[in-house]
Structure formats: C-alpha cells, structure tokens
C-alpha cells in the first residue's frame, strides 16, 4: 500500500471538517474523490500532503508512519527533516497550477530535482524534456508561465510534480480553473498516466472522467466518506441516499 | 569667485553627500529585510519591539532623529561626542531608512500568493530555500517602484545632515553662499541633486526592464 490514512480528524476553529476518515491507496490505483463543495475533499488532500496538520489519526506512506495519535490523543508527526523525506513519495497538482512565474518552463521542472533531490543538471534536464514532450509542450521549454494557456500551465505543473519521481500523485480539481475547451487536454494526460499505472488520487467534479478513468470512486459529504467502490457501482447503482441526491444533480 | 573654484570647493561636499547616500543604502537595504522578517517573528515581544521601532522612525522627523543620535550620548550619559558626528549621522540615516524599506519589503512579501509557498513546500524545498529562490526574486520585482521612490527621497534627504553640522553639499552651498553673497552655490547644488536623481531613476528603470521578462 502506498498511502494509508486512518481515522483522520481535522478541525478548523471548532468546525469538524474531517470526521474519522480512513482510506488507502494501492500501487497503480487511480482513486477519484467526489462530493459537494465544502465536504472536505481539499482538506483531505492537504492533510495527506502535510500542508495541513491533522488533529488525530494516522498517515502512513510506503509502510512508514509519518503521523500518528499518541496516548494523550494528540497527533504527532515525525521530525521536520524526516517529513521532507516523505515529500519525495508524493506530488501535488493544484487547481491554480502555482508554477513559479520567474522561472522558465524548463527551470520550473528541473529546479526541485536539482535543488532538493541533488540530481545532476543533465539528468534533470533529460527527465524534464522527456516529461514536457509527453505533456505535448516540449516546444515551450524556454517560455515563461505567463506566456502559456491555463491548460498548458497545468500540464507543466503535472510535469513538475512527475519530475520528482513520486510514488503517488494528488490532483485537487486540476481542471476547475480552466476554460471548458482546455479541460480535455489536461484530462487526456491524466488518463495517459493512468494507462501507465501511475498511482493517483484525483479530486474532481468531472464525473464522466471519474467514471472512465478511476478504479475506485470515493464520495465524500460532511467530512465523512459516505460511499466508495467501483465507479460503475457508485455511479449507476449508488447505495446511499446522499450519493443518489448528489449524482442526480449531475445527470440533469 | 569663478564658477570653477566654486565647483572645486563644492566637489568635496558632493563626495560627502554621495558617501551618506551610498552608506545609507548599503546599511538600510539589508537591515530593512532583517526588520521585515523580524516583524513576522513568532515571538510577540520581537514583533512588538519591531513595530515600535518602525512607528517611531516613521512618526518623527529624520532631522530630530539625527539630533538625538548625535547629542543623545552627551545629554543622557555625559559622554564625549568628539568623533561621533559621522557615525551618528550614518546610524540615524540607516535606522530611519531601514524602517521604510522594511515596510516596503513586508508589503512585497505579503503580496506573494500562498500557493507559491505551498508548491515549494510540497516539492520539498526548505523554508530558507523557498524564501531565497521562490519568494525573494518575485518580491524584488514587485517592490521596484516604491524602492525607487525611497531612494530618490534619500538623495534629497542627505541635506538633512546639515542639522548636525556635517558639511556635505548643502551645508557647503549655504556657507559659500553667505560668505560670498551669491546664490550660485544653491543652483549648483540643485543641479547636482537633480542629476543624481535622474541617474537613480535611470538605473532603477533599467533594473525594472531587466525584470520584465516575466509577469
Ligand atoms: N484554512 C481554513 N480555515 C478555516 N476553515 C477552512 C479552511 N480550509 C477549509 N475550511 C473549511 O473546511 C470545509 C471543507 O473545505 P474544503 O476546502 O476541504 O472543501 P472541498 O470539499 O474541497 O470543497 P470544494 O469542492 O468547494 O473545493 C469548508 O467548510 C471550509 O470552509
Ligand atoms: Mg476543494
């Protein structure tokens, strides 16, 4: 198992946003997380990527524990330096891309491998050029983010994350900031990664995409996992009332 | 007195004015960054001290601050202030300008979207790496216009050194003017400040252009 999250709890000033969430992701799995706005999907990804600290529960990557609850019921994390090791296990693609505007496209993709992973420049550049070619934007290597369309920027962001050779890649609504005609090109590369058995967790509102690409769908509402399973079962034969209600909005 | 002798007399003052200007920038620009970072310290006492420092520096006249730095040691501790004039002058300028620069830096740092920090954090950058390689370059680009303003103000503010009888360009112009009953020294000084600012604006404009390669 690549990632295991157990009994995750998270509050924001008294508001319980994640209530005892447990799920795991196996190697090669593509998991989609769907659910209404405010259900805690982003918070879950942010806890998995240590951008938020959990209040309780356990986070394990590759069998190594990054956080657990101690006997006093407090969540404790491993030391900062060790935590940085864990960061090499995953990548995160943001809704707003968050590319570094002062770096060229190539530099965006090679900087962390060189600076953080201490890889050689040649190695980083050849990896990066390969990834940019795969993303269909090799010709943009010397451009700057502001010169690219949103769809192209998001593909750079995916290349940047992949350049770190993560075991698992998280996406938080990767197409929500894009014009409809640009979402296709981003979904296409994610689908391509799925075909290559890249382990991924995708928070999305693109139901057709979730249904077509993922091995498992998790439906969240009110900070809990209401239902999960094979996409065909969840989409065509939802068991829970809340799931039915949520999905009916999309069918109209 | 010919224009030539007047110019050669005043060149000394020009050099001293340039000295104040350069030393102030060299001291205040880095110190301002330290102050800006201290203002974001997690220790409330540190934040409090820094806030008080900034508000005093910005809330009182620089001339008064120069007088306080120069005469303070004597009135407070009865210390001999013989060789203290120049250090007091530079200290006064640096501390005053560091306060202004720190506020400019802080504004710049706060304008960087949180997503930049988060992207860097997820990629495994340390906090120092994030600040130096991701945040600072973008801050520098954003603060160029207000920094230019501040530097231009400094060129003119150097004349405040006359308040503690440090003979830079402006004091010198005043002296020559009253001893030779001519207004010419002030004209020369005015041209000097104007040209200096022209050069400052030109250089800063070039730097801004240089940073124009991204948005
Ligand atoms: N930093 C924060 N401080 C306070 N409350 C927060 C914070 N982040 C999220 N919340 C709250 O937590 C709840 C869950 O937010 P979250 O962003 O995880 O939802 P989401 O499922 O991703 O929604 P969306 O589909 O709109 O992106 C919301 O009520 C939100 O207001
Ligand atoms: Mg969200």
Would you mind describing this structure in some detail?
The complex is a heterodimer of chains A (252) and B (215). Chain A has 252 residues and is of the alpha/beta class. Helices cover 37% and strands 27% of the residues of chain A. Chain A contains 9 helices and 11 strands. Chain A has helices at 41-48, 80-87, 105-115, 121-134, 150-162, 180-195, 207-213, 231-236, 241-251; strands at 3-12, 15-25, 30-34, 56-61, 64-69, 75-77, 90-93, 168-172, 199-203, 216-221, 224-229. In chain A, the strands form 2 sheets. Chain A has a 6-stranded mixed sheet, with helices on both faces. A 5-stranded antiparallel sheet of chain A has the order 2-1-4-5-6. In chain A, helix 3 packs across helix 4, helix 3 runs parallel beside helix 5 and helix 5 (150-162) runs parallel beside helix 6 (180-195). Chain A is globular, with a radius of gyration of 18 Å. The mean pLDDT of chain A is 95. Chain B is mainly alpha-helical and 215 residues long. Chain B has one domain (3-214): MetI-like (MetI-like fold), CATH 1.10.3720. Helix content of chain B is 81%, strand content 0%. Chain B contains 8 helices and no strands. In chain B, helix 1 packs antiparallel against helix 7 and helix 6 (127-157) packs antiparallel against helix 8 (184-210). The interface between A and B is medium-sized, with 26 and 21 residues. The structure holds adenosine-5'-triphosphate and magnesium ion.
SSE diagram, text form:
The complex is a heterodimer of chains A (252) and B (215).
Chain A: E1 3-12, E2 15-25, E3 30-34, H1 41-48, E4 56-61, E5 64-69, E6 75-77, H2 80-87, E7 90-93, H3 105-115, H4 121-134, H5 150-162, E8 168-172, H6 180-195, E9 199-203, H7 207-213, E10 216-221, E11 224-229, H8 231-236, H9 241-251
Parallel strand pairs in A: 3-9, 3-10, 7-8, 8-9
Antiparallel strand pairs in A: 1-2, 1-4, 4-5, 5-6, 10-11
Chain B: H1 3-39, H2 44-59, H3 62-77, H4 85-110, H5 114-122, H6 127-157, H7 169-180, H8 184-210
Adenosine-5'-triphosphate binds at residues 12, 17, 35, 37-43 of chain A.
